[in-house]
Amino acid sequence: MIMAMVREGLAGHTVHDGAQDVFRDEAARWVAVVGRDRTADGHFYYSVRTTGVYCRPSCPSRRALRAHVRFHSTTAEAEQAGFRPCKRCRPDGSALGVQRVAMVTEACRVIERAARPPSLRALADAAGMSRFHFQRVFTSLTGVSPRTYAVAHRTRRVRDELARRSTVTEAMYGAGFNSSGRFYAHASGALGMTPTRFRAGGAGALIRFAVGQCWLGAVLVAATETGVCAIFLGDDPDALVRELQDRFPKARLVGGDREFDGYIAKVVGLVEAPGLGLELPLDIRGTAFQQRVWQALRDIPAGATASYTDIARRIGAPNAVRGVAGACAANPIAVAIPCHRVVRRDGELSGYRWGVERKLALLTREAVR
Length: 369
What we know:
Elements: H1 4-9, H2 26-34, E1 45-48, E2 53-55, E3 69-72, H3 75-80, E4 84-85, H4 96-113, H5 120-127, H6 131-142, H7 146-164, H8 168-174, H9 180-191, H10 195-199, E5 206-214, E6 217-223, E7 228-234, H11 237-247, E8 252-255, H12 261-272, H13 288-298, E9 306-307, H14 308-314, H15 321-329, E10 342-343, H16 356-368
């Protein structure tokens, strides 16, 4: 199973996984050719009678008329029919990018199947690369290092095992841990609570919250014992509270007391003057990929902006632009994690979880200050 964060990182690349049946009939193959579907590459090829060449389904060449197109299961079949390989998409040789994606996909599967995380040397040797080169290629495509991927996958196994096993001990062995000490240390840090509490759906976890007002409208602030876990913006205070309940359905939500009013005051101060920063700890929960994106967002100074492409490059994953956009959309901590400072490549505003109007207002105020 390839995890969600790798699907984010590999967005736009070819990953074959059970698509053979999908492209078996000619109608589906023609749809793939018209859409230049990269996922069809390697499953079939098409030739054009008027040019005498055959191509990958994703070939960027000008689309041929359907009447002039034939389909072939292999390159050998196309060449036996008298067609020569296209010089643009080079269907007779696996492109370097396709090879790398296939290699990284296989490495992810090796990590997922292993009882214990394989070493970087073992993964690099299997790929026929040096450790440095393998790590660089893996990180550029997935957005995370092999070690971070392994930790994230193991965390997911812990979550799954705790959800389906009848006891914590069974979950420990099911997740591949032979030591209870290592299991509890990993699980408690990764889950934000003890394994026993997690099995209960987070029931009993205490989250304090309060709703205040700022120049952008209503602002909700919520915090665990670790730090601020949510800052929501909106027009309807009740809607913000319902959003918090949906995000933490089994936690115990408690209205903030007089002491908690200080949290609200500091967040409102941040919204008023973002350049001052927020002197409060954050309880940031997300995938390893999301956390790398969110950290990169916090490095954008007030008054500046960056594109999704810029952020992808900064985290060492230049091909993960869509993954970066997804992480921005999933950000639960407005302003303190300034996803409003991310714009489109052409400088135009894109979507914002709390409204494009608020995004423009924040950027305008920051630019003036």
